[in-house]
Design goal:
about 220 residues, alpha+beta, 2 domains, five-stranded antiparallel sheet, about 15% strand
Length: about 220
């Protein structure tokens, strides 16, 4: 929306009047008043009907601009799934709602694969479609796919869930090998400790590869 200089002046004038600031009427303004539209004699802080009408006209223009923008966004969302998802996203106390699905964030300090995990819930049926996902990217990607009409057993969804499961599995292995390495070290078995450290690093590398795959799949890119 483009606001004209006249509209800005009208708004500024009305605000200054409401703040009790004195107003000067220029010769040009005086010449505009006729017998049909007499000059109103106003005290500090008083607003003339002309100023009220000017402000009402500016507000109408603002309202029309907002309504037009909202309409354009709705039309664009019909063509752009990402924008549609953004318009239908609502934050909650324990996660986020996107379309008809909710990503619920949970916390478990004893969880080996990471204390933070995510559930994906169908808000219409209340059914948990995915439980204890370690990566938010996996939960978000799953919700996007389901909201776009994919079935849970469709190939992209299966690939995403397999990559997520691989990440979780390798992360658990890395933690276990790390604990085993420390135990062997305390027992004085340096060779076994080094072997466990090597296995831990291998598991971490595999976990990072799986995480990279999850990100690619969640963005609609193949492996």
């Amino acid at each position: 929306m483009t606001v004209s200089a006249e509209d800005r002046d009208a708004m500024a004038r009305l605000l200054s009047i409401m703040n009790g600031q004195p107003q000067e009427i220029s010769p040009l303004q005086e010449s505009k008043h006729t017998a049909a539209s007499p000059v109103e004699l106003l005290g500090p802080g008083q607003v003339s009907s002309r100023d009220i009408n000017a402000m009402a006209d500016v507000l109408r223009k603002l309202e029309n601009a907002v309504n037009s923008t909202s309409s354009n966004m709705l039309e664009e969302s019909a063509r752009d799934p990402e924008l549609k998802a953004a318009l239908n996203t609502t934050a909650t106390s324990d996660g986020v709602k996107i379309g008809i699905y909710k990503i619920q964030q949970q916390l478990d300090e004893s969880r080996v694969a990471g204390k933070q995990y995510y559930n994906v819930i169908n808000q219409v049926t209340g059914h948990v479609v995915a439980h204890e996902l370690s990566l938010y990217e996996a939960a978000h990607g799953l919700v996007k796919m389901l909201n776009n009409g994919m079935y849970f057993n469709s190939a992209p969804v299966r690939q995403l869930m397999e990559a997520e499961a691989a990440y979780t599995s390798h992360k658990i292995d890395a933690v276990r090998f790390h604990r085993a390495a420390r135990k062997q070290q305390k027992m004085g078995h340096e060779d076994k400790s080094q072997l466990m450290e090597t296995r831990k690093q291998d598991s971490l590398d595999k976990a990072m590869l799986a995480k990279s795959n999850v990100k690619k799949l969640s963005q609609g890119r193949g492996l």
